[in-house]
Amino acid sequence: MAKGEVLVNQELCKECSLCITACPHNVLRIGKSINTKGYHPVEAFAPERCTGCTLCGVMCPDMVLTIKRKSPERK
User: Fold this and answer.
1) Which of the residues 3, 24, 43, 62 has an alpha carbon 20 to 30 A from that of 16?
2) Among 70, 72, 67, 63, which residue's Cα sits nearest to residue 54?
């Protein structure tokens, strides 16, 4: 199975939680830190679960997520 990595632009995240709802693998959650706009940006608390499906990025209205896909190593 492919693996992925979710990168969050912490300063642009508005804590709408749409990405959290969209993620079928429960990778994201609302973080404890506060950005300069006063929001708690999301964080990838379980990055090992990410498959790189990009559903979180598609749902984000402000495009603050970057998803990197990692191909499985061939044997």
Assistant:
1) 3
2) 67
Looking at residue 70, its pLDDT comes to 82
Range of the domain at 61: 3-68
Predicted confidence (pLDDT) at residue 1 exceeds the cutoff of 70: no
Q: Is residue 75 part of a domain?
A: no
Q: Considering its fold, how many domains does the chain have in total? A: 1
Beta carbons within 10 angstroms of residue 56's beta carbon: 25
CA distance readout (Å), 35 to 10, 27, 31, 58, 75 = 7, 20, 10, 22, 43
Largest CA distance in the chain: 47
73 has pLDDT over 90:
no
